[in-house]
Design brief:
CATH class: Alpha Beta
Number of strands: 9
CATH topology: Rossmann fold
Largest sheet: 9 strands, mixed
Oligomer: single chain
Low-confidence stretches: 1-6
Structural class: alpha/beta
Order of helices and strands: HEEHEHEHHHEHHEEHEHHEH
Number of domains: 1
Mean pLDDT: 87
Helix content: 25-40%
Strand content: 15-25%
Shape: globular
């Protein structure tokens, strides 16, 4: 049996990487299927027992696995955009009670630090999505003819740069624009390098920024913001101590009482993170993928 100390060396924001016995997971259900050869995993966490089993808030976590989609042919990429759009729409319907429709107000928030490549997916999505709220005021005739959602977007930055918690910024904006739903976009931490830029997680539970790297900030949830919330995340980093711990485990090394030096290495590794060498491409292309999916959702619903 692993000690609490040992399991704490594994960090991940991905529900699909939760260390759960899927055959015996009280309060948690799993479903897997493929759409156009793209694997989709759905983990549903029930209140109470499911939360205790999984260590995650109650809700639905959808994981889409698409390896290096920026290298895909256009028709295959278009199918992936359509799939993501559909799944985000499903999550919106789950929390708001209705799918996006013409004049449906949506606030898109790109979380993260745009000055750090691996953390810039959120701000880049906020920059790229088609914003229509101002059009609804200045050219109402054109806006009505388009039949799209009323979209506002923001990138609130990080507290280290602004001195303001992102949750406080988003709450203030939500009180002003009064969206029916807030869609949060953020970079995530994974446990496995194979997940980096190859996974999109869609959840109806909100986000606790920085939780995957042990730097918890104020949560952005429906309770905290006063508005239904959907989150979309892409893993871009792996905690180096997680990589080392998993390598030790794969090699049959256990952290017994005499393994003080190994523990020291793992503790030091908590401050270092591994990102793909092509992080600039990863960030740009995954942000474009998600912004295209959001545009499709807001344009065709």
């Amino acid at each position: 049996m692993q000690s609490k100390c040992e399991t704490s060396y594994r960090r991940s924001d991905l529900a699909v990487e939760a260390e759960i016995d899927r055959e015996n997971a009280p309060g948690v259900t799993f479903e897997e299927y493929e759409r156009d050869s793209v694997p989709v995993s759905v983990m549903t966490v029930g209140k109470g027992e499911g939360e205790r089993t999984s260590g995650r808030p109650a809700g639905t976590y959808v994981t889409v696995t698409a390896k290096r989609p920026w290298l895909w042919a256009d028709d295959r990429r278009d199918a992936l955009v359509a799939l993501l759009s559909e799944l985000i729409g499903d999550a919106v319907q789950s929390v708001a009670g209705v799918r996006p429709h013409p004049d449906f107000p949506i606030l898109i928030c790109g979380l993260g630090n745009r000055a750090m490549t691996a953390d810039a997916i959120g701000p880049k999505v906020a920059d790229a999505v088609t914003v229509t709220a101002q059009l609804s005021v200045e050219r109402r005739d054109l806006y009505d003819a388009l039949g799209c959602c009323r979209v506002t977007a923001t990138a609130p930055g990080v507290a280290a740069a602004t001195g303001i918690e992102a949750a406080d910024v988003v709450r203030g904006i939500a009180e002003t624009v009064r969206p029916a739903v807030v869609i949060l976009i953020d970079a995530l931490a994974a446990r496995s390098c194979s997940r980096l830029a190859s996974t999109v997680q869609i959840a109806d539970t909100g986000i606790s920024p920085g939780s995957g790297i042990g730097n918890r900030r104020s949560p952005l949830t429906a309770e905290a913001l006063g508005v239904p919330v959907v989150s979309v995340g892409v893993p871009t980093i792996v905690d180096s101590s997680t990589l080392v711990y998993d390598a030790l485990e794969a090699g049959g090394v256990t952290l017994g009482p005499e393994a003080d030096e190994l523990r020291r290495v793992l503790e030091e590794g908590r401050s270092f993170f591994v990102a793909p060498k092509e992080s600039d491409v990863v960030t740009e292309e995954m942000a474009r993928l998600i912004s295209d999916a959001l545009d499709l959702l807001c344009r065709t619903s």
